[in-house]
Design a protein that fits this description.
homotetramer, about 100 residues, mainly alpha, Helix Hairpins, 4 helices, about 0% strand, flat
């Protein structure tokens, strides 16, 4: 399971349209844009101006989902299996990085 | 299921250490860094210099996983349920944006 | 000369207000946001959808200026002299990187 | 003067080589990468781990210069005059945004 559902949701949505996935550099540009929108939300909530109530997580959550959608577009367009990539990363963290931080 | 496993993997890894989750703006800074590393990989493979073989997806996949790890840190630290955020976004896409692109 | 005028313009503008410069991580968050807005403009003009006329440079120019403004905030808040940093970088390019690319 | 010198330095450096300026989306990808490197430096110095001495501004300054270099590549490749863009932005700040913050 894991990321399979998200990758399949994106594939089903994109495959309805004639446009298809964008080329990789255009997806990176979109990712930069979406990352920027998430940064703005987080800065509004937790930054020096802190105008937002501490209860409003919804907009931050929305922006995280948009970033993941863009990452799924890149993964799908290149035939990348995110569950496999995730397990490989967690494996590396559990071995290589195990001693980098102070344990409880 | 969906993102639950990834969020749990991150929680288990972080909770081993005394440091805990970083404050939101520090996580955004890390996200900017990880997004930059993904951009570099994609530019190396698909950009104007194209030094990399078209078969090497592994490094792009690794960098995507690192970005998702950072997003899970932000979500976990703020009590955000990514499955919920994802379903909300997909629902919006399926309704509001349904007519934005040319259908097949 | 060089960047002195830009740094001074920013200093004069910021020093009018009680708020002052943001802390470094908040400026990075803003920088991520502004970089994202520039990415969006460039993707609109040069990306796969290319809705914009090839004559419209104004919006890209505006977004570049916004990114530089944010960089000047970071530099000013940390007492960084951008002319000095620029000369150091150009010097490094002219020596270390001189043989990295094919000369005309 | 202002940004003219920086734009000219970049033009002289790039024009030595056969490669020329990259296409806009590849420059954005590089910009995302350079912004990420700046974010890492700032997070190292001012973030939760703060391993770096508070005296080390040099690396942050280096990374800011790298970001500006990339912005000059984008501007030069599109015939954008950064001094003009800067003045237009400062003019807008001085008029439109004049009342947005609390004056001293």
């Amino acid at each position: 399971m894991g990321f399979k559902k998200a990758q399949k949701d994106v594939e089903e949505w994109v495959s309805q349209y004639t446009e298809g996935y964008w080329p990789p550099l255009a997806i990176i540009s979109r990712l930069t844009e979406e990352t920027g929108e998430l940064a703005r939300e987080v800065n509004h909530r937790f930054g020096p101006k802190k105008k937002k109530s501490t209860e409003e997580n919804a907009e931050v959550a929305d922006e995280i989902a948009d970033v993941i959608f863009t990452l799924c577009c890149l993964a799908n367009s290149q035939g990348i299996d995110l569950d496999e990539a995730w397990e490989k990363m967690m494996q590396k963290l559990r071995t290589r990085d195990d001693k980098r931080f102070e344990k409880k």
